Amino acid sequence: MKPLLIGGAWVDAPAAAPNINPSDTRDIVDEYGQADAALAADAVAAAAAAFPGWAQASIQRRSEILDAAGSELVARAGELGRLLAREEGKTLPEGVAEATRAGQIFKFFAGEALRVYGDAQRSVRPGVEVAVTREPLGVTALITPWNFPLAIPAWKTAAALAYGNTVVLKPADLTPGCAWALADILQRAGAPPGVFNLVMGRGAVIGSALVEDSRVEAVSFTGSTATGARIGAACMARNARVQLEMGGKNPLVVLDDADVELAADCAVNGAFYSTGQRCTASSRLIVTEGIHDRFVAAVAARLERLVVGHALEDGVQIGPVVDGRQLDQDCEYVEIGRKEGARLLMGGERLQRSTPGHYLSPALFVDVDNRMRIAREEIFGPVAAVIRVRDFEEALAVANDTPFGLSAGICTQSLKFATAFREQAKVGMVMVNLPTAGVDPHVPFGGRKASSFGPREQGRHAAEFYTAVKTAYVFAG
User: Fold this and answer.
1) Domains by residue range for the chain, with CATH
2) Distance of CA 211 to CAs 43, 238, 450, Å?
3) Which of 87, 217, 245, 457 is catalytic?
4) What's the pLDDT score for residue 192?
5) 305-359, pLDDT tens digit by residue?
6) Which of 243, 228, 196, 233 shows the shortest CA–CA distance to 212?
7) Other CB atoms closer than 10 Å to residue 427's CB: what's the count?
8) CA 217, 207, 445 angle in degrees (round to 5)?
9) Which parts of 91-175 fold into alpha helices (H)?
10) Any idea what the Cα angle at residue 277 is, between residues 273 and 282, rounded to 5°?
């Protein structure tokens, strides 16, 4: 059983749970400890005790620890990518890319740790100087999802540590392996005891314990909208800082003047790669009449060639769904789409492969109305809906007609329409002639409406969440 990390020591948990490979359910990756509320409280206590020393630590030391962790992540990207593919179901190339990205994130924040920004001003009162500085918050609880089990813990943890906070990380139940590997790497990189703590287990048990602990100054959560709403309410009830990254129902608009091959590539990449299990996936393909049929044919042709199979096999492009419950949900939405009157052009079928796993053929619906559930609710699987519209104005209106607002894309050769879409799409991120999924680690990530709450993640904007602004006045006489 893999233990927890609390106060710099590996601690056995009272129970364990198997980590099952979704590509081959006979394969147990390992067994990982399951913390209880008392152990979660111990982790918070360790983080609170470590905070004063870490907050006052040399910024050079912080930077060196983060850089060392980043270097090991990059050096071990092949090994860690294989672990990621095995426990989550991403294809091996996607897993290696995510591990590399996690290392790059740590290296970016190693640099940010050295960039201590402040602002010196003069007061309107003679002889008074004003200094505006940023300070760490304290203990931060980081609750992360299963779909990016290395990258998301990395971009939360690296930012929190760079700015002088201590961390309690609670990873998703389905993917504890990558988080455990990250904890092990940070230990070797020299993180002092209690600065980074790892508690694995059920969110209903330890997630609640972390969110409600008065010693936790800030909670950063990525996951479902419903869970995010509960966490937000609990944090606001005690005036704790909270950052929520939740769902998406992202549109990709394709106009008549688009390059149809490029548009089809963007759609297939954005909607179906990573098995569609991305909050930025383009699950709504909003297509104008003049290009609709050619676009649908081009997408269908690509889907016919996609190889679905074991995440570690060469040539596989789409791995399994993460577990049986998620597969059941995906199949349920396929049935919902049919009953609502959408036409299932292809896919949406459970697949049998040489190993027992959670395989689903990518599903493409056409004749979809934006009022249908498959166009309004996040499915979080390889299911996309094509919505036919008349022109750019209707496309924009349909794109914005959603409770979510994370990412949106447009494929067009018109500078006029691209500019208008960038300005008027009610989202946090806009892509022009690119898939809606796929962002850089050094720029802000986040959305609007039901997709996000609080300051952005990643890049320099992460300081807005992980630091508190202090204004000091000094009378020099």
Assistant:
1) 4-246+451-475 (3.40.605.10), 251-432 (3.40.309.10)
2) 13, 10, 20
3) 245
4) 98
5) 999 999 999 999 999 999 999 999 999 999 999 999 999 999 999 999 999 999 9
6) 233
7) 26
8) 65
9) 92-112, 151-162
10) 65
Can you tell me the mean pLDDT for 413-424? 98
What element of type H or E holds 371? none
Strand partners, 28: 20
The H-or-E segment that residue 319 falls in is: none
Greatest alpha-carbon pair distance for the chain in Å reads: 81
Please tell me the distance from the alpha carbon of residue 29 to that of residue 19, in angstroms, as a whole number: 5
pLDDT tens column, 226-251: 999 999 999 999 999 999 999 999 99
* pLDDT tops 80 at residue 37: yes
Q: What is the pTM of this model?
A: 0.97
pLDDT at res. 362: 98
Question: What are the strands, taking DSSP E only, across 296-428?
Answer: 343-346, 350-351, 359-360, 363-366, 383-389, 404-405, 407-411
For residue 469, how many other CB atoms are within 10 A of its CB?
11
Q: Indicate the length of the chain as a whole number.
A: 477
Examine the residue annotation and report whether 393 is marked as an active-site residue of this protein. no
- On the CB side of 13, how many CA atoms lie within 13 Å of its CA? 25
Of the candidates 178, 235, 266, 279, the residue annotated as catalytic is 279
- List C-alpha distances in Å: 268 to 150, 255, 279, 404: 24, 16, 15, 21
Active site residue 235: no
Amino acid identity of 315?
G
| Cα gap 195→197, rounded to integer Å | 7
Q: What Cα–Cα distance (Å) separates residue 145 from each residue in 271, 348, 472?
A: 19, 24, 39
